[in-house]
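Recap quiz, item 2
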Amino acid sequence: MTVTLKDVATLAGVSVKTVSNVVNGYAFVKPENRRRVEEALAATGYRPNVGARNLRRGRTGFLALMVPELSIPYFGELAGLVITAAQKRGWSVLIEQTQGTRSRERETLFSLGPHLVDGALVHPEALEAADFPSPGEIPLVMLGEHAVDVPIDHVAIDNVLAAQTAVSHLASLGRTRIAAIGRNPARGTSSLRLAGYREALFLAGLSYSDALVAPAEKWHRSVGAAAMRSLLASDSPPDAVFCFNDLLAIGALRAVAELGLRVPEDVAIVGFDNNEESAFSLPALTTIAPDKTALAEAAIDLVHRRITGDKTSPAQDIQTPFALEIRESTKGR
Amino acid sequence: MTVTLKDVATLAGVSVKTVSNVVNGYAFVKPENRRRVEEALAATGYRPNVGARNLRRGRTGFLALMVPELSIPYFGELAGLVITAAQKRGWSVLIEQTQGTRSRERETLFSLGPHLVDGALVHPEALEAADFPSPGEIPLVMLGEHAVDVPIDHVAIDNVLAAQTAVSHLASLGRTRIAAIGRNPARGTSSLRLAGYREALFLAGLSYSDALVAPAEKWHRSVGAAAMRSLLASDSPPDAVFCFNDLLAIGALRAVAELGLRVPEDVAIVGFDNNEESAFSLPALTTIAPDKTALAEAAIDLVHRRITGDKTSPAQDIQTPFALEIRESTKGR
DNA sequence: GGTACTTTTTACATCGTTGGAACAACGTTG
DNA sequence: CAACGTTGTTCCAACGATGTAAAAAGTACC
C-alpha cells in the first residue's frame, strides 16, 4: 500500500540510494536515470516517510508551542502567527495547553523529549525557575513576560514600559483616580504591569492606593466585570481603569454599562493585548497593541538559530515593539 | 547525551530487549531484573525515541487538525477542545491553517501522509468533492457542515434546523422584516443556514426577499458592519437580522450603534457559534450555541475508531446538539 | 537422571531512510 | 595502453525501537 524508496527503485530499475539521491537533489545523477526515477516517483505517488527520515537525520520537523488555552483570544491569535512563521521554515507546530497551571506546565515541559520535537516555544504563566529543565535538552524559547530569571532565550515586549504608556495616557486625559485590575502575585506578568502602573502614577504626580488595585485570579471577562463592580461600589470610585488585559477590560466595560455609567465620560478604560474583538466592542477599546507578528517571527528565528548550530552563545532577550492604540474607551466618539 | 535502550541495558546488565520488555510492561520478567532495569531507567532518565518506536509500530501518535484560522474565535475554542479530547486518548495535535482557501485546503489534505499523522480532523471551507483523497489513505473526519457529498465520517450540528430555530425566534418576537447576513455561494455552510432561514420565514408566513439577504465574502466583524450599514440604508430597513456567525453579528451591533439605533428595540440580532465574547458584547448576543465539546469528542471518537481497526464500515454522520442562547440582543435587558 | 513443560532472556531481522565507502564506468592524459 | 581524475552508482551500516523465534534457565514429574 504505502510506497517506499525500494518500490520506486524497483520500478525505475536503479538502487534505492539513487532514488534517495534524486529525491534529495543530489547533483550527480545521470539525466537518463534522473528522468526514469522521476517518472517512477510520479507513477507511484511516493511520499517520504517522515519518521524514518528523521530517525536517520536526528530531526523531527516539529516544534511545540505551549500556551495556557487556545480559547483565549490572545493565544489563539498568537498561535496562528507562530504556525504561519514556523511553516515558512518548514516546521509543523504541535500545540500543548496547560490551563496556566504550574503542574501542567512542568509536566509539559518535561515531556518534550528531544525525539518528539526539535524545539519548543513556551508561554509560561506560573512556572518558577526551578521548573526549567537542565539547559541543552532541547532548544527552548520563552514567549511573553520574563517572570523568572532563567538563562533561556526570551522574546517579549517591554511590559513595564507598555503599562506605563497606557496609564500615562489616562493621566494625560486628566484622570486622577486611576484604578488597575489584574493583580495576581502568582503571575509574573502581573507584577511587571503593576510596576508600570505605579511608575506612571508617580510621573503624573498621583499617589498610589491599594484600594484602587483589584486582584484577578484568572484574567477572564467575568472576572473583569466583577472587579469593576466592586471598584465602582467603593466610596470614591475611579474615573479611569487600566486593565491588565483586554478580556478584563471587556468585562469592565459591561459592568460600567450595567450600572448606567458611561465610558469614557464617567470612567475611561484601557486594556492590554489588542485582541481583534477589542476594536469592535462598544465602545471600542483603547489598548496596548503588541506586535504579535514580530513576536512570533522573532521567536521562530531564535529557535531556528538554536536548532541549526548555535548551542552555546548566551541566552538572548529580545524586545519586540508595541503601540498604544487609542480608541473610543478613552477618547470617546 | 541522549539515552537509548542500549545504554540502559548496559547499565542494568541485561539485553536491550529485556529493557524494552520492562518499558512496555511485558509480564515475564524476573522481579530481580525488573528492579535492576527500573533503577537503570530512573538513573539514566531514559525517554523512548518516539520516532523510532513509531517507525517500528507504524504509528505516529499525532493527529492533524485543519482549520481556516486559529485567530477566529470559533476555531480557537474548537481547537482547544479537540486538543484536550485528543490528549485523553494519547494523541498530540498538529495544527494546520488554510485561511479557508481551496488551494491551501487541497494542499494540506494532500500533504497529510500516513507517516506524518495517524489521522486528521478537517474543517473545510471551500473544498469540493473532487479534492478529497482516495479513501483509505489515512482516517479522515470532517468537522462542521457537510458541504459536499463525500463518503467520509462527519460530525456537525444540524445547520438547517439551527438556522431555522434562530430565525423562528426572531419571528416569534413579532419581527416581520428579518434580514440575513452571510450569503456566500462558495461556502457550503452558507447555503445550509440560508435554507434554514427560508424555512423559518415560510413557517412564520413571511415572504422571502433577496434584498434582505446580504452577501459576505469573509465572515469577519468588519464585513458584518458593512453589510448591516447597507441593509439599514435601504428603503425599508430590517427590524431583525440573522447573522451567519457571531463575528458578523458583532460587526452588525456596531453598525447599528453607530447609526444611533437601538438593539433590540429597533433591530434584533441573532448570531451563530456562541463565541465566548458574545456573552459580553453590549448588548449580549443571542446566538446558536453548538455543543463544541460534544463536537470535539465525537470527532476524536470517530477517528480513534477508524485508526484502531474499523476501516471498512460505511461513513458515519453524527449530529451533535445545539441550543438557542437567548440574550439581550433579542430580548432586551 | 531424563523428559516435558513453562518461564525468562537473548540474538537477529526489520521498519524506511540516508551517510559514507567502495566500486564501476568514463574520458583524459602522458 | 596504463594510470588517473571525474562522475555516477551501489552496497552496507546505522538511526532506536520492537516482533519473532530460538536459546537458556527453571520446575515438575516419573
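Chain B touches chain A through 48 residues (CB under 8 Å).
Chain B has a mean pLDDT of 91.
End of item.
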